[in-house]
């Protein structure tokens, strides 16, 4: 019998491009599975793409109306019986610390309409969890999984931006975060980043000026300057100052980047924030949507030796924060009408029951409905959603 520790050890010893093949063999051997498939969410989070040797793979499945998509959305196993074939397919979420990667689908003999035994389900969940961790590690050394995520070719700017991101969602006891960029395959200037320690969460939301590779290069410079300052242990104001100087030193004020820098104290809910010409912040509290009013400061890199001032506010358990770039506000309908604040407030309210990981995609889908098929995006758009749960026992 393969214990989880033995499975993890076996996957660690596999070549990066063979991680899934090795896992499939283990499942087939232990559970006599007649089919094992790994599907990864594409960059737009709308399709689940089969992993295999391109172009010889299966057809993608919809995230919204497929059995695998149901497991992906709910982040719970979903079983489907096929009495004619006498099989049961178990779809299991493949996720790492709240970051939803895809779905592991295992087809087992026996389609009597009942779910597999609890022990079998628990065993398969262990396989899916082990696979999720190994996929993240393997992506450093193989393109197999990154290629499988592509429903179409990425632009070079989009390639640079997606490689810069920490993930698209994460979850801890104190908070949950979801984030998404659009158009996913042609994004250029928008970006986000986060990092957590035992005591705090640092979140940045960025909107670089320009288009294409120029915008992607600008964002890469600013994000890495912020990371460099953060990892040196500097406070929020110094992080902003050093990133500002890095961008100004490279471009002399001809290019700059709007940014929002936040540090959440995980024990108290106190938030330090710097609004450097940033994307806007909205708060959903007790059913009411309201803007978080901030003192606007200069974008990063606009002027030399800009001094940044930290402001403060507080989040309470149950609060939901939205960070939205101007690509959302400026989106035009076929009639030339901008996406209104009323429409944004409505979609924030309508998605209040969804987990943070699913909210950005839902907001961007509503935005797509506003633009219509005849309304192409004039700018890239970013939505970040943060749910604050607070630390149990704190306060």
UniProtKB/TrEMBL annotation:
Keywords, comma-separated and alphabetical: Hydrolase
Cross-referenced Pfam families: SpoIIE (PF07228)
InterPro entries, per database record: Bact_Sigma-Reg (IPR052016), PPM-type-like_dom_sf (IPR036457), PPM-type_phosphatase-like_dom (IPR001932)
The UniProt record lists the keyword Hydrolase: yes
The keyword rRNA-binding belongs to this UniProt entry's keyword annotation: no
SMART domains found in the cross-reference section: PP2C_SIG
Chain ranges of the PPM-type phosphatase domain: 184-388
PANTHER family per record: STAGE II SPORULATION PROTEIN E, STAGE II SPORULATION PROTEIN E-RELATED
Entry protein name: PPM-type phosphatase domain-containing protein
Species: Streptomyces clavifer
């Amino acid at each position: 019998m393969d214990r989880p520790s033995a499975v993890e050890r076996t996957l660690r010893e596999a070549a990066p491009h063979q991680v899934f093949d090795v896992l499939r063999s283990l499942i087939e051997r232990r559970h006599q599975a007649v089919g094992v498939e790994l599907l990864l969410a594409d960059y737009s989070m709308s399709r689940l793409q089969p992993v295999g040797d391109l172009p010889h793979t299966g057809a993608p499945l919809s995230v919204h109306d497929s059995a695998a998509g149901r497991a992906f959305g709910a982040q719970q196993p979903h079983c489907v019986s096929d009495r004619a074939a006498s099989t049961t397919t178990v779809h299991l979420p493949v996720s790492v610390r709240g970051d939803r990667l895809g779905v592991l689908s295992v087809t087992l003999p026996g389609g009597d309409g009942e779910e597999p035994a609890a022990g079998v389900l628990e065993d398969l969940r262990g396989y899916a969890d082990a696979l999720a961790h190994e996929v993240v590690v393997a992506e450093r050394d193989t393109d197999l999984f990154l290629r499988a995520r592509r429903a179409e070719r990425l632009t070079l700017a989009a390639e640079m931006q997606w490689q810069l991101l920490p993930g698209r969602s994460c979850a801890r006891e104190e908070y949950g975060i979801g984030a998404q960029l659009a158009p996913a395959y042609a994004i250029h200037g928008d970006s986000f980043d986060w990092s957590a320690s035992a005591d705090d969460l640092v979140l940045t939301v960025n909107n670089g000026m320009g288009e294409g590779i120029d915008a992607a290069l600008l964002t890469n410079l600013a994000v890495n300057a912020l990371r460099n300052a953060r990892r040196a242990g500097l406070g929020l104001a110094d992080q902003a100052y050093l990133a500002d100087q890095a961008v100004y030193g490279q471009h002399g004020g001809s290019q700059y980047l709007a940014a929002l820098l936040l540090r959440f104290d995980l024990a108290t809910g106190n938030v330090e924030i710097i609004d450097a010409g940033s994307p806007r912040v909205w708060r959903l509290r007790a059913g009411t949507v309201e803007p978080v009013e901030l003192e606007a400061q200069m974008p990063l890199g606009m002027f030399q030796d800009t001094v940044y001032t930290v402001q403060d506010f507080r989040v309470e358990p149950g609060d939901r924060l939205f960070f939205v770039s101007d690509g959302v506000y400026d989106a035009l309908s076929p009639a030339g009408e901008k996406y209104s604040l009323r429409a944004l407030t409505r979609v924030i309210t309508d998605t209040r029951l969804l987990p943070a990981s699913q909210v950005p995609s839902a907001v961007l889908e509503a935005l797509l409905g506003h633009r219509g098929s005849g309304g192409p995006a004039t700018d890239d758009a970013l939505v970040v959603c943060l749910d604050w749960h607070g630390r149990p026992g704190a306060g």
